[in-house]
Design a protein that fits this description.
single chain, mainly beta, Jelly Rolls, 4-stranded antiparallel beta sheet, globular
């Protein structure tokens, strides 16, 4: 899971997800958002940013599930440089078995919480 923040001028061009991803669920947390400010998730028919089939609003209660394929084009439109709002979202991504995590690369020894031991102790 990864939270993201796109400030003024930020964007993510047309792309399909990496081959090690299976599906990504993006959830939005803005109470309001003016689509004219950009920053919206655009579901595309092709690699052309102007070939949008759907624009996902960035408001609480909106989300998108992106199933990875060679044709699952999407992009985040550029946030207007004068926008004072923050584009807030959380992405939950499911990877193929054996995929190398960008958050916990091989050799990372950061301790994590042991939920099973915590449940047994309760």
């Amino acid at each position: 899971m990864r939270s993201t923040h796109y400030g003024p001028g930020a964007w993510h061009g047309p792309h399909v997800d990496l081959a090690d991803k299976i599906v990504t669920h993006v959830l939005y947390f803005n109470p309001t958002w003016n689509i004219a400010n950009g920053g919206c998730l655009n579901i595309l028919r092709s690699a052309d940013i102007n070939d949008s089939t759907h624009v996902v609003p960035l408001i609480v209660g909106s989300s998108a599930v992106l199933v990875r394929s060679d044709k699952s084009w999407h992009a985040v439109s550029r946030v207007d440089r004068d926008c004072n709002d923050s584009r807030r979202s959380i992405m939950v991504t499911f990877h193929c078995d054996g995929a190398v995590s960008t958050m916990w690369p091989p050799g990372d020894t950061t301790p994590t919480f042991d939920y099973i031991d915590a449940m047994d102790a309760a």
